[in-house]
Amino acid sequence: MISPSDRALAVELIQEANQNGARLSLACKELNISVRTYERWVSEGGIKEDGRPMALRPEPKNKLTVEEKQEILKIVKKEEFIDLPPTQIVPKLADQRIYIASESSFYRVLREHKMQNHRGRSKRPERRLPESHLATAPNQVWTWDITWLKGPVKGMFYRLYLIIDIFSRKIVGWEIWETEEAKHAEELMKKTIINEKIQGGPLVLHSDNGSPMKAATFQVLLEKLGIQSSYSRPRVSNDNPYSEAMFRTLKYRPEFPYNGFETLEVAREWALKFVDWYNCIHLHSGINFVTPEQCHTGAHIEILEKRKEVYELAKQKHPERWTRSTRDWSAHDSVALNPMKDELEMNGIK
Length: 350
What we know:
Mean pLDDT: 86
Order of helices and strands: HHHHHHEEEEHEHHEHHHHEH
Largest sheet: 5 strands, mixed
Number of helices: 14
Number of domains: 4
Structural class: alpha/beta
Low-confidence stretches: 342-350
C-alpha cells in the first residue's frame, strides 16, 4: 500500500512535469498510475493543482444530529407509521405538534440505513411476466388478433380477424367482418381447425384481452376443441408480437389502400391477395428466407439444404473470397412466444 508521503511525492512530480509541458497522461504513465488515480490522490490528499493545501469543507449547519437520526429511525418503526412513506409521516407528526426534519431528510436517513423500501405489511409490487410458449413444429402455437381497416367513409371500419402459426409464420386463418363479435371469432376458429386438420390435437391460442377473445361462448368453444387459451398482459401489446408485426407488414404494403376500402367485398378480395402473397411468395426473414407455406409443409428443409450446397460449392471454387464459414442456412427447430431467459437456456436457444 502506498503511504501518504509517497502519494504526495508522486503528485508533486506529476504536477511539475505537467507544468513544464508534459501531458498529464504521459506523466502519470511514467509512474505507472492512471490519470484517474492521480485525480483521486489530489482530491483525497488535500492538494490542489497549484500545490496549495485545500481548505477543509465545513460541516453544514443544518446537518441532523446523531440523536435526531435515531429519533427518525424510531418513528418510522412505530406501528402507526411502519406502512407509510415520509410524505405521509411528516404531516401526521405536524398534526401532533412534532417536527424533527423534512420529508427529504427522512428519505435520506432511510437510504443511509438501507430502509428505503417496502416496510411493514406493504409488499413490493410483483412484476407479472408474460405467458411463454415454445413451438417445435407447425400447429402447436397460434396467435391471433383483430385490426381495423378503413371503410369508404370517415368513421366506418371493417374488422380483419387473422390467425398466425408462430413456427411457420403462415396465416392459417383469416376473415373480414363489419363488426367485432365473439360469434365471428368462433366461426373463424372452427373453420381454421378443420382446414388444418388438427381437431383434438394439442394447441395453444394466444391473443390480447379484447372482448371477442375473452367472451364466454368463445372460451367454451376452445375448451370443446381442446385448445389452451393464452393472453397478453393488460395494456401490453408487445406480448403478442407476431400479430402486431403481421399487421404492420400488411398496412405497409405499397398497394394497401390507405384511403379505405370501398366495400366489404373489396376488402376481402384485397386480403385474399395479400394472404396468398404472404404465405406463398414472401420470403420471410424470421424463418431464414423461405415462404411460410414452405415452412408449414416442411418443404423448407430441402430448400435450405440445397442453398447450403450452393454456398459450399462457391466456397470451394473461390476459397479466397471466404474468410469464415459459409452462410448458415440451417432450418430453425423451435420458436418461442415471449421467451423467458431460463426457458431459452434450458432448451439450448441463445
